[in-house]
Design brief:
The complex is a heterodimer of chains A (100) and B (578).
Chain A (H helix, E strand, L loop, with lengths): L4 H12 L4 E8 L4 E4 L3 H25 L8 E4 L4 E6 L3 E7 L4
Antiparallel strand pairs in A: 1-2, 1-5, 3-4, 4-5
Chain B lengths: L34 H4 L51 H13 L1 H23 L22 E7 L8 E7 L6 E7 L14 E5 L8 E3 L5 E6 L6 E6 L4 E5 L8 E2 L10 E6 L7 E6 L3 E6 L8 E4 L14 E6 L6 E6 L3 E6 L5 H4 E6 L5 E6 L6 E6 L2 E6 L8 E2 L7 E6 L6 E6 L3 E6 L9 E4 L5 E6 L5 E6 L4 E6 L1 H4 L5 H41 L3 H4 L3 H34 L2
Antiparallel strand pairs in B: 1-28, 2-3, 3-4, 4-5, 6-7, 7-8, 8-9, 10-11, 11-12, 12-13, 14-15, 15-16, 16-17, 18-19, 19-20, 20-21, 22-23, 23-24, 24-25, 26-27, 27-28
The chains are: A alpha+beta (100), B alpha+beta (578).
Chain lengths: 100, 578
């Protein structure tokens, strides 16, 4: 059943409205940012740097156990947390500030 | 021998039924053992042989070659766009993006990823997984841990021919940089291709020095200006003083003129406390202490000759090897000499003769290090020959505390700037000792073997945690001391003050007693000389009479011993006879 374009928008809007979320970037497998809520320069930076990192992380997991695969990657830093959900062709990157 | 049992049966009785009957046991054959046969047996010693069925393996260790790595930054530009889309053209990129968004697989994957992400975001919002749960238990008692130190970095001389690290100086602003002077101090060992360079190292990067200082002749000592962290002054092997500004590069900004400099290598140079912040003074084994203004290095501003006779005679001057200057007492300074004397001087004296206030005689060899205790300026530490001694300014005759004679020569020492009772020493066998006088006085609290060759210089950073020591082959090692030895303990100052006072008092009493005894001796000898005019012959024994008396004494002692042995022997034989 062809999924509606609106559903995708709805999902992204829901994520954006969660507490602490600072931005969302969707990157394709070639490193091109498809959709973003951040400004252009940050988007390009995130897209390029995180793309390489996810490739490295995925190959690391697979090298240790070929049956294994990367499902999620979190990078916690002093100021915020970068969460990456990888897929075969796209990544969904969310920058959140877990302020408790 | 054949054992045969014959069983006979008549043919006519074949086929009849068997009738079994019981009868008692009957010995049929008895074969006794034949001992002669035992002689023919050869006993074999049993042997244990282990076997194992496995593959043969050998162990081999491999160390990879040192890999030099560099950190570089990477600037990410826009990329990955397909060939027909120009990234700078907004319209094309928007069109491309819209196309991807309409793609079926895109929508599916985003929906799926979205739900996964949603879960984790909510998780983050629910609980802070990095919260500090047990903060109260974090103050562990630090007093129990054993003193330790670990090597952080080793800075090696990049030149082929290795030179000794003769002096180290920390950058005054935070101590991120270390300046090291390299020079071959052995007499006539320096070859033509010995590089005269000295280096400034950044402590984070041990692979390459941050700046090379290129004087005309190798530097024996150098010092950072505490007022201006960009300037350094150094004393070189040929006696000249050199002044650098690190903002201006590796070449010296100014050099002192050869005629007015020292005639021997400059062993120590220290910046002075002055309003302009440009004064320094240097000492050398030619017996002079010279004061300089670095703005005008062609002539020293003042000169002092270390003549113990206070005459300014250069021929009788003592060679100076170390200097000491404390910023809180700007008029006084001390010089350690090659002859083992410490000379205390006053800069502001009216006449040159009064400049030398007093001397302290303590060591058998040159005093390689001289350092005042930063907390108790009246007490200072000297190092020379095989001991380290602590002195009090008031007691001239001897030091108030000293270490045992060590196994090897001590080369450098300094107090810790944070703990008044801790000092560090380096030895010729490559050992760095950390002494804590309040804890243990016979032995160092911590003894570390830094390297196999001799250590020649030592400097503690102002925070008291980092210690840099330099070795004979040009390797400067940076060590971090454990927090127990670099944090001020409670009551430490008062305890150390009490200890110094006690020792000073003891020395004073000893000195007084010595003086008393000497006075008594003198008065007695004077008296006896008056009485002696009458009894001349008796008083004066000639050598032959002395020898005769000695012989008599000797033989009487031998006789007595022999008699005693005979007596003992007789007593023991009497006991054995029943």
């Amino acid at each position: 059943m062809p999924t509606n374009y609106a559903e995708v928008e709805e999902t992204l809007r829901r994520i954006q409205s969660q507490k602490g979320v600072q931005g969302i970037v969707i990157v394709n497998s070639e490193g091109i940012p498809i959709k973003t809520t951040l400004d252009n320069s940050s988007t390009v930076q995130y897209a390029g740097l995180i793309h390489q990192l996810v490739m490295k992380a995925r190959s690391t997991v697979r090298d240790i156990d070929p049956q294994n695969d990367l499902t999620f990657l979190r990078i916690r830093s002093k100021k915020n947390e970068i969460m990456i959900a990888p897929d075969k062709d796209y990544f969904l990157i969310v920058i959140q500030n877990p302020s408790d | 021998m054949e054992i045969v049992h014959v069983y006979t049966k008549l043919r006519s009785e074949f086929g009849r039924q068997y009738l079994f009957s019981d009868r008692p046991t009957e010995l049929l054959v008895d074969i006794p053992p034949d001992p002669s046969l035992a002689m023919q047996f050869i006993t074999k010693t049993p042997r244990d042989q282990a076997t194992q069925a496995c593959r043969e393996m050998s162990e081999h260790q491999v160390n990879t070659e040192r890999f030099e790595s560099e950190s570089r930054g990477l600037n990410h530009m826009e990329g990955g766009w397909p060939k027909d889309v120009d990234p700078n053209d907004m319209e094309q990129t928007i069109r491309f993006r819209k196309k991807v968004e309409k793609d079926e697989s895109y929508m599916n994957s985003i929906l799926q990823l979205g739900s996964v992400m949603d879960h984790y975001i909510r998780q983050n919002n629910a609980i802070n997984i990095y919260q500090d749960y047990f903060t109260e238990d974090q103050d562990i008692d630090e007093g129990q841990e054993a003193p330790s130190a670990k090597t952080i970095n080793v800075f090696r001389d990049p030149n082929e021919v290795k030179r000794t690290v003769t002096c180290l100086s920390w950058h005054p602003d935070g101590g991120r940089k270390l300046a090291a002077a390299y020079c071959c101090l052995e007499f006539q060992k320096s070859s033509k291709d010995l590089s005269p360079d000295s280096y400034i190292w950044d402590i984070e990067n041990p692979n390459q020095p941050e700046l090379a200082l290129k004087p005309a002749s190798p530097l024996v000592c150098l010092d950072y200006n505490p007022k201006d962290p960009h300037t350094l002054v150094g004393g070189s092997y040929n006696g000249q003083i050199v002044y650098w500004d690190t903002r201006r590069g590796s070449q010296p900004v100014e050099l002192s003129s050869v005629e007015h400099s020292h005639r021997d290598p400059v062993y120590k140079i220290i910046w002075l406390q002055s309003k302009t912040g440009t004064d320094a003074f240097s000492a050398s084994t030619d017996g002079q202490v010279l004061w300089w203004d670095v703005r005008k290095l062609n002539e020293p501003t003042e000169r002092l000759v270390l003549d113990p006779g206070r005459e300014g005679n250069l021929d009788r001057a003592l060679g100076a090897i170390s200097l000491e200057f404390e910023a809180t007492m700007p008029t006084k300074f001390m010089v350690g000499t090659e002859q083992g004397l410490v000379v205390s001087c006053n800069r502001k004296a009216k006449t040159p003769a009064e400049k030398i206030v007093c001397t302290y005689d303590g060591h058998h060899g040159p005093i390689y290090a001289l350092h005042r205790n930063p907390f108790f300026p009246k007490n200072f530490l000297t190092v020379g020959d095989w001991t380290a001694r602590i002195w009090s300014e008031d007691i001239r005759d001897s030091s108030i505390m000293w270490t045992r004679y060590q196994m090897s020569y001590l080369t450098d020492a300094c107090w810790s700037p944070v703990r008044p009772s801790v000092f560090f020493t380096t030895k010729m066998d490559g050992v760095l000792d950390v002494w804590d006088v309040l804890f243990k006085q016979n032995n160092p609290t911590l003894s570390l073997k830094v390297c196999d060759e001799a250590l020649y210089s030592l400097r503690v950073q102002d925070n008291g945690r980092f210690v840099a020591c330099g070795s004979q082959i040009g390797a400067a090692t940076l060590l971090e001391i454990c927090s127990g030895l670099s944090t001020l303990q409670k009551n430490e100052k008062s305890l150390l003050a009490a200890m110094f006072e006690r020792e000073t008092k003891r020395e004073k009493i000893l000195e007084a007693r010595q003086r008393e005894m000497r006075l008594k001796e003198r008065s007695r000898s004077e008296q006896s000389r008056e009485d002696d005019t009458g009894r001349d012959a008796d008083g004066d024994e000639s050598p032959e009479q002395l020898i005769a008396r000695a012989e008599e004494d000797f033989y009487s002692v031998v006789e007595a011993e022999r008699k005693r042995r005979e007596e003992r022997h007789r007593v023991s034989t009497n006991h054995s006879k029943p």
